[in-house]
Amino acid sequence: MKSIKKLIRLIHINYILAKNGLDNVVVSLRLFAPLRFMVYLNPWNWFRKEHLTHGEALRISLEALGPIFIKFGQALSTRPDILPIDIAIELSKLQDKVPPFPSEKAMAIIEKAYGLSPYEVFAEFDPIPLASASMAQVHAAKLKTGEEVIVKVLRPNMRRVIENDLSIMHTIAKWADRYWPEIRRLKPKEIVAEFEHTLLDELDLQREAANAAQLRRNFDRSPILYIPEVYWDYSRSNVMVLERIHGIPVSDISSLQAHSIDIKKLAERGVEIFFTQVFRDCFFHADMHPGNIFVSYNNPQDPQYICIDFGIMGTLNDNDKRYLAENLLAFFNRDYRRVAQLHVESGWVARDTRVDEFESAIRTVCEPIFERPLKDISFAQVVLRLFQVARRFHMEVQPQLVLLQKTLLAIEGLGRQLYPELDLWTTAKPFLEKWVKEQIGPKAFFTQLKQNLPFFAEQLPNMPKLVFDFLELKREELITDKKVLSHTKREEEKAALHWKSIATGASISFLLMGLLDYWNLIAQRQLAPLAFIGAAITGLFVLLNRSMRN
Q1: pLDDT digits (tens, 9 = 90+) for 225-250
Q2: What is the domain partition of the chain in residue ranges?
Q3: 510-541: pLDDT as tens digits
Q4: What are the residues whose beta carbons fall under 8 Å from the beta carbon of 168, sequence distance 6 or more?
Q5: Is 136 annotated for ligand binding?
Q6: Has 423 been annotated as catalytic?
Q7: Catalytic option among 287, 309, 320, 423
Q8: Residue 154 vs residues 119, 136, 157: alpha-carbon distances, Å
Q9: Binding residue per annotation — 210?
Q10: Which Gene Ontology CC terms are recorded (predicted)?
């Protein structure tokens, strides 16, 4: 039954692609090459007045295929390192907006989660959703303690829907990898696997709540970013309750201006938030599209962002963070050799990569960019071009860097939408230089020491015993090593003497044999066997005598 449903879904996908003029893409697969003539039989090709670009046709097709394919298109739009730029830009227009599911189902999910109806759990509950997306929808409510909240409810049967569509995607990726050489280099199977991992993470609202709580803690009392509070007592894997926030959508420029928001400062603070999350906290919001960002009405001359939707977060380890910071600074200073070296040192490209060739490739791509005024240079595009060059040198896909690139593109795009003169380079460079100084040198040493003081204080009472145990262990190892060396030396000396004895005994035997044989030849031939035996016994006696001495 599953196979039949899968086949029907595949037929439907091909129908949508053909309808939007992508049938030539399908028949370009070697598997379907014999059906290439079908393109000319496609009735949509006869009457189509408007010829869409591949990017437009793909976007429209994904929209028609449903929310999971829309999210896949959105994920692909963040990968202009593997897609043509025009297609990536077109896919970035995909909107994750779908009609809400019936309120009765939402209320049934809430009742199952709490064991009580929404009206028993909350003082107030609005059955009409505030917003709806592919994975969940949001309802307004009020706690019995008076706080205004939003209740996020996961769509019913989402796991089954996702697994069905992911199965189709895996099949398509496998076919593309096998039969489409042009696509094989893009690693379609790996792309789908990466998307699957991200998508399944979004199914757990407890995970999202934990992300929100962590980010709120990181920016506690911050004047630049506010994160709504999580109400843990009401949060489940398929229901999440957050503080309701009120603000101006960041994309509503006219409203921002009407409230006298300092737009320039707002744009610069967006950059500051990004670099703070990445380099201070190593934990960043990776879904920073305008629908998830608001601006507080309070303090218009000291604007504060408000973020929602914490399903997709990015993390960096200390090594990635350091290499990334040094990479960006090297770029600022046009030190392309250092950029190449850092890529090799970090393991982002193979260890046997020739640094001089990599440096030359980076310079060729980036030097023309730097000839323009800094305010006209897209910081995100420079990073993107760097990744594109690195891909030519077989840079493995780094999921954390993909999310970082996606977020950087979104932040810079948003900042320049707010304030077209935004110079992200000028804003970012002092931040990075300060961060690098804090990580290297005496100040960094004492900071690290201060951070480790509680551990040292805890271990201090044990230090004498630990030192004694360590020294005792080393003493025993030294004694053992000496014994082994002494024994080995004696054995070597005995072996040398032993072989010397053998040589001496053999020499005496051969000498006696020679003399006796000579004597035998001259005088008494009948005594030859006896002489031979006597010579051998004499040699053995010498050998045994020396061995016993040793």
Answers
A1: 999 999 999 999 999 999 999 999 99
A2: 1-95, 316-457, 482-548
A3: 444 454 444 444 444 444 444 445 544 554 44
A4: 6, 9, 10, 13
A5: yes
A6: no
A7: 287
A8: 19, 4, 9
A9: no
A10: plasma membrane
